[in-house]
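step 4 of 6: structure.
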Amino acid sequence: MGVLIVGSVALDSVRTPFGEVEEVLGGSATYGSIAASYFTDVDLVAVVGEDFPEPHREFLRRRNINVDGLVTKPGRTFRWKGEYGFQLNEAKTLRTELNVLETFQPTLPASYRQAEVVFLANIDPELQLHVLRQVERPRLVAADTMNFWIDGKREALLRVLKEIDLLMINDGEARSLAKEVNLVKAAQWILGCGPKGLIIKRGEYGAMMFNAHRVFIAPAYPLESVFDPTGAGDSFAGGLLGYLAQSDDLSDATLRRAVIYGSAMASFAVEAFSVDRLKDVTEEALQTRVREFKAMTAFEEIVP
Amino acid sequence: MGVLIVGSVALDSVRTPFGEVEEVLGGSATYGSIAASYFTDVDLVAVVGEDFPEPHREFLRRRNINVDGLVTKPGRTFRWKGEYGFQLNEAKTLRTELNVLETFQPTLPASYRQAEVVFLANIDPELQLHVLRQVERPRLVAADTMNFWIDGKREALLRVLKEIDLLMINDGEARSLAKEVNLVKAAQWILGCGPKGLIIKRGEYGAMMFNAHRVFIAPAYPLESVFDPTGAGDSFAGGLLGYLAQSDDLSDATLRRAVIYGSAMASFAVEAFSVDRLKDVTEEALQTRVREFKAMTAFEEIVP
């Protein structure tokens, strides 16, 4: 199985306590696609402006990402400018220029319509539904969202929830969506809206996966230096879904492993600005990190 | 092995979004001793005033806690009044009355001096050293502290670090102590000060155990209703040290299991005000919770 990813491709300007970059490659679909590309074929759906640097498109192609769905429209590429403090836990948005994203109405290339795993990254829930209607028989549909849509397009978002299998959002978003402070109760409320699974991303604290009867909790990889958290959540989602697509299996055991592979991908993403670290992950580095996750969390509850 | 615990015995007044209690049994040594008492003999060292209700002392005795070291001094018992918001993650202290705690200079009963596991709960580091000098040959000494001592008695605290095996503090305290935002680097700095092990408590996010070459990360038990977080950290420490004492083994495997038993004890402590839930934990409830921790965290990194 391959993965279809729809979301944003952006030019990001980011300042952290450790440095600053201007107009580097970013966007939810970018991080998601690169992370997924380590595991499976990726069909990317996004829009850029005429100013989008050709080397970026070339780079995505070299990572075996199908960019037939990356359309160029008249105007400027979506731009985001943000800043992080020393805690690195929350971005302060300094400027958002939607540009070509404002009128984005994706039409899937014919070859994308048989996609079996679909990731609706953080875009307008109306667009998420619009994309979903063009996919024929997906086996797994996952989505992300943000407070902007939770507050502003709640009805459309609730319709999205009815049609997806897996929602991946952060803890603040889960609380806002369910209007409930307690995460366990918030998760139950969200599962009641439709999705069979819910993954709550908690940044440096890792992720929780809920389904009707089970919870799986994974830590974040403890890094000595987190350089730039931008794209961590999308890299997590891309790695997770890429691993699932490659495995061709949706059992609980495989889902758990997928959460770990996603967490590993997120840990690489935050080690450098933009996709500078994420773009060159060796199979050995990935497997080492996954083994470390096991070593960091394993215990025997009974004396052997 | 038994556990010697020195710390505070208090009368707490607590307000949470779910209710309010006045002058109920609390204090670091209280929570720690009760949690430890499920696993091993406990020698309690603390001070109370003449107003300390006799039923509380009786209750501790019934839990097989040795209260020979719980001295009564003229004056009033230590009182703490605090409040939690809906997030339940941080107490706002409304009032602290040290009372008899202000001049506390514990002298250990002779029978306590052979203690093999010692927990110096959160008190003045000078007092922690004073207690430690009275213990003859402990196999494991653990300590807690707080920002008040990190800021106000740094030199004494650094002397404590040289003499203990295990420090258990929360993430904010670890960052303050090491003057370093990154937790991995903060942990390395703290281990450089003396202790062989460091446990960083992260409230609803669980705990991380660091030693020279290893990290173990455990989640907190995801509860549907957290009623009152007071005493969670002390219950964690008491459960952990009680389990270690009972096991008579300090291997990494046993330490990991001890973190899980401590986490289970903390999860019971927060389910009700004061020690109302912690005081009646059945063996079955405890074992069920430990098995759930395993089920929530286990994954196989390799396809079987």
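step 5 of 6: annotate
 - Chain B has one domain: 3-297.
 - The mean pLDDT of chain B is 96.
step 6 of 6: archive
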